Amino acid sequence: MASNKNLPRYEAEDIQVLEGLEAVRRRPGMYVGGTDLKALHHLIYEVVDNSIDEALAGACTHINVTIHADQSVTVEDNGRGIPVAPHPVKRISTLQLVMTTLHAGGKFNGGGYKVSGGLHGVGVSAVNALSEWMEVVVKREGKIFRQRYEQGVPCGPVEVIAELPPERATETGTRTTFRYDPTIFKEVEGYRFDTLVQRFREMAFVTRGITIYCRDEREIPVREMTFYFEGGIVSFVRYLNRNRNVLHPVFYIARDVDGVGIEVAVQYSDAYAESVYSFANTIHTVDGGTHLTGLRAALTRTINDYARKQGFLKENEPNFSGDDTREGLTAIVAIKHPDPQFESQTKVKLMNAEIKGLVESIVAEHFSIYLEENPREARAIVEKCLTASRAREAARRARELVIRKSALESTALPGKLADCAERNPSLAELYIVEGDSAGGSAKQGRDRRFQAILPLRGKILNTERARLDKILSNEEVKAIITALGTGVGEDFNLGNLRYHRIIIMCDADVDGSHIRTLLLTFFFRYMQPLIEAGHLYIAQPPLYRLEYKKQVYYFYTEEQKDDFLRSLGEGEHITLQRYKGLGEMNPEQLWETTMDPQRRTLLQVTIEDAAAADKMFDMLMGSVVAPRRRFIQTHARQVRNLDV
């Protein structure tokens, strides 16, 4: 029997009970998903979601969100205002109860809210717990009430700070101001305005009649945006497709079944990618769920039935696959459920089993009628699916050919790849380098133990405008796929990745930016799990090399260079070189500026919001020219030597 003398002590006094909100501060990941930038934004979403719930109850029409210069945030609405009277059971102000007690809220018994996004009574109290301080001001009953908290603990009782004048006595609403606790969110630099406004845009699309105003006071001039969409999710689909050639008007259906509201908007375009987004009680379920499964199943079944009935598919031909019927699809499915079941507190996936059948039956019934009544539009959709089906079969044959060829060759890796000695993927990295010249310098300057180099010749294929069968015939793309080892498309397997850091290294000029965008487009469309797992990076080569008093300095931005020059005295002798490309650096310079893990700067590529990324790639790399021209002309002042 094993000896117990070396085991740690385990006695009754070792059992801890975490009181109040202390559990949230100890384990923030359980409540907001972590302490990273995504979790930081989640704090704002939790507070705004409460205001959205007021809108769903028909009590709120305006939500104002302000980021102040000190990184505090104010969320104000004109809803009913959080109750302030003493709670009949707990005997303290209901406002204090809601703000300081987990699982306290008005969304459990259905009395205060028939439909809501906040379900667990955790959201706003968790934000309070993770805030350095919070102040809540409530207007109701003709008075203005206030309470302040520090690290979730009330600084005093709820107090009346003013009486509303008679002409405003009926005004109600809640204003919540908080500042995140930097001792918990230690490695974040603050909120990203663009990330927030993307989320608020989505909220305004799926909550018809709400106006959301966002203001960022951290910059001069102040940044402001207001969102209001009369058309709801139909406007959302049009917004997503505004840079695409669409095949038909938006198909829209809205129904209430068994107390569940279901809204679906569908439109096909000439694009190759699928852009489908799902919402439950206005919460963006980024991992989908039963409502999204029901939508996809209905579209596949309905299009196959129509194609068979009209003779587009012959008896000996197989049905369209789900991938075939989703090529070029832009769709929104939004449900409102009195008791939604989510996978976690962060609400990334809807789990209600009955929703799949409800969505599938409603969409199948009405989309079938739409196809029957609109034969021209139906034909365009079916022909799109036919083309996708043929291309999918061609891509399958091309993938099999690539795999078969690799298996028969003496080496499965591309000839121009300079591989590393390390065989543990977590310790290995691959530099994808623009041009043979820079590739040669990178091969000589690298650390051969763990750094592999894959030089690219020229610009790879624009994968936004090509199907997979054509993409797989491109030698540069094939070299990337083969070097990574993951396969592509249906055969993609992240577990086979040969390098856990894939680093794009391009020149700091317009051509380099174009090549980098082409590569990012390919990874976004065909290897998105690789980005989501955090394996893709962008190298940051210097713009300038400056020699001063026998010391060499490298500068990565114009501002760094200008600041250094201003710090020098008049008449100082310097040698300044502007790098036009990576090929101008010798191997030693490339190593010490861009490849040495101790000194280099890498930007990790993330997908903070799929809709924003989809919109940007579609605009920059898609087939419609006008939006791209407008974008270039708008940003022309920031780009030198660019012939618009």
Short structural description:
The chain is α+β, with helices and mostly antiparallel strands and 644 residues long. Helices cover 36% and strands 20% of the residues. The protein has 20 helices and 22 strands.
Description:
It is a single chain. The chain has 644 residues and is an alpha+beta fold. The protein has three domains: 22-227, Heat Shock Protein 90 (2-Layer Sandwich), CATH 3.30.565; 233-392, Ribosomal Protein S5, domain 2, CATH 3.30.230; 410-541 and 603-638, Rossmann fold, CATH 3.40.50. The radius of gyration is 28 Å and the shape is globular. The termini are far apart.
Major sheet details: 9 strands, mixed
Stated plainly, the CATH topology of the largest domain is called Heat Shock Protein 90
Oligomer: single chain
* Strand elements, count: 22
In DSSP terms (H or I, runs of 4 or more residues), the helix count works out at 20
CATH architecture of the largest domain: 2-Layer Sandwich
Instruction: Report the CATH superfamily of the largest domain.
Output: Histidine kinase-like ATPase, C-terminal domain
Distance between the termini: 80 Å
DSSP strand content: 15-25%
Morphology: globular
The pLDDT mean sits at: 84
* The CATH class of the largest domain: Alpha Beta
The structural class is: alpha+beta
Q: C-alpha Rg, in Å?
A: 28 Å
Helix content: 25-40%
